[in-house]
Write a structure and sequence with these properties.
The structure is a homodimer of 309-residue chains. With 309 residues, the first copy, chain A, is α/β, with parallel strands linked by helices. Chain A is 43% helix and 9% strand. Chain A is built from twelve helices and seven strands. In chain A, strand 5, helix 7 and strand 6 form a beta-alpha-beta unit. The N and C termini of chain A lie far apart (42 Å).
């Protein structure tokens, strides 16, 4: 393995940056770079590009690598990036992870292979192990992506235990998008003092997470509300913390009344006055006019804005 | 669109050919071609390569295209092939479908995009529609792959109705791996006289399917028991049909007592005296020694063999 560079681990609010598509559904690197730069200027400590909310799994490996390259060329520091690199195909996961490390990304956020269901922890261990061994680079920081409501394949605590024992330093943490605080808490209790950084998958659990030893959050609505979410992180020990948390939770609840990914795009299109953002790739569909009107109206009533967009 | 060639539609017993991997987990084209040729000589009318049981979703598009090319060069007629070409990423589905048509494959068997859950029929319609339009070739024969126990994304009858109305002749049929005969029967009743060929996804439903207007079956155990399954098809109007069906159902039931994909590989390894076949790609794992012993012992007791392997 190549030796590890001394690199600070990523912490704070990370957004799974949404991906803009042109009318012909091809990814739009310029618009992507602009949005990512805005996120970094607006409260995000890093970007978990190619997450679920990025429509990552609607894109090929090549399409994603082109966007990643454009992002780094466009001035977003590789050290702030934690791209999603987990695919259903082992070979795709290896290619994408290797390239992310080569480009200097701070870490990678890896889904388990998500086509086959009911697979064993042994099979999942072998999957992550093959990726780590084939990439063969001590700079790799691998964050496990637990999102059973979508992947339908879980990252169990026992699996984390095995991976951490075998690859300490490389297996660096997890995003828990189970939506189940008891799971996040259990993950924190068991692993937080072992070089394993836990990020809840929603800002709803940001303050609870920080109080229990979490390192921030990686959250869909970080795409539209990064400043306010970052304020919770900055002030989590203050007496204002619960009030700040309540406000971001309220915003989240407005957004998630409608389908999340097209909602994030519609909100960005509306507040950025850039209609092209509404385009999603199949199998997703845009919000209906009624859904968009509802979410925008409620956000405005709550005083929401996207300053500088 | 390019004009359609007059080509006979594929009918009969199709196997989702298992994929051999070397010790380093790379696909093994030579062993693949040998197995596929044996299948074609042993009762299969065609091969649904890159199906669920082929570990298709554990391979990259490039790896699959190399195997497909090797197969055709190796003497398996493209007209007997119905490769799986559906991926979670639209761009991958387009690439793979376009290449399959270019190589002259009889049809393609398309999974819906399977990462996002709870997607709408409208979103799935757009996915298949984009693939058809981008491939833009009248030779395309698209078979829809309904396997909700694994994909967790269903092909509804209403979706078939819409696709068939918009792309008659191109949307050519479906494989129903729901395991729910009432769904297969409903599909047959509604679409069998409209140029839409229905294949149950297990030989357990072969005879029922044929009697209701089905065109054969596409079945995992076609990998190991193609001759006997084909005998049901050849004799389905005879008085022997129910007895022949009972025999293949009994064999199927022995195999599916253990995990199907490693079972097919273990059986092929055992009866072909070729241990390399046991290798699976993560996240799958081989059968345990006990599982393998059980399935082999029971198959032998039932008089099972793989002649000519």
């Amino acid at each position: 393995m190549k030796p590890a560079a001394a690199q600070k681990r990523i912490e704070g609010v990370l957004a799974p940056a949404i991906t803009p598509f042109r009318r012909d559904l091809s990814p739009d690197p310029d618009r992507f770079v602009r949005h990512c730069r805005w996120l970094m200027q607006s409260g995000c400590a890093g970007l978990a590009v190619f997450g679920t909310n990025s429509e990552a799994n609607s894109m090929s490996v090549d399409e994603k690598l082109e966007l990643l390259e454009a992002l780094i060329k466009g001035g977003v520091p590789a050290g702030a990036l934690m791209p999603g690199t987990g695919h259903s195909a082992l070979s795709d996961s290896v290619t994408m992870t290797r390239e992310a490390v080569r480009m200097g990304c701070s870490g990678v956020l890896m889904l388990p292979p998500f086509y086959y269901k009911g697979v064993s922890d042994e099979g999942l261990f072998r999957n992550f192990s093959e990726v780590i061994e084939r990439v063969g680079d001590e700079r790799l920081r691998l964050y496990l992506y637990h999102i059973p409501p979508v992947s339908n394949v879980a990252i169990t605590l026992d699996l984390i235990e095995r991976l951490l024992a075998r690859y300490p330093g490389i297996v660096a943490g997890a995003k828990d998008s189970s939506g189940d605080w008891s799971n996040t808490r259990a993950m924190l209790e068991r692993f937080k003092d072992r070089g394993f950084d836990v990020f809840p998958g929603s800002e709803v659990f940001l303050l609870d997470g920080l109080r229990a030893g979490g390192k921030g959050c990686i959250t869909a609505t970080g795409n539209v509300n990064p400043g306010a979410i970052n304020e919770v992180l900055r002030n989590w020990r203050s007496t204002e913390a619960d009030k700040l948390q309540a406000a971001i939770t309220a915003t989240r609840k407005i957004v998630q009344k409608v389908p999340m990914i097209p909602a994030l795009k519609a909100i960005t299109a509306h507040f950025g006055n850039d209609p092209a953002w509404r385009t999603v790739r199949p199998p997703l569909t845009e919000l209906t006019a009624g859904e968009e009107k509802q979410v925008i109206t409620e956000l405005k009533a709550a005083g929401f804005s996207m300053p500088g967009l």
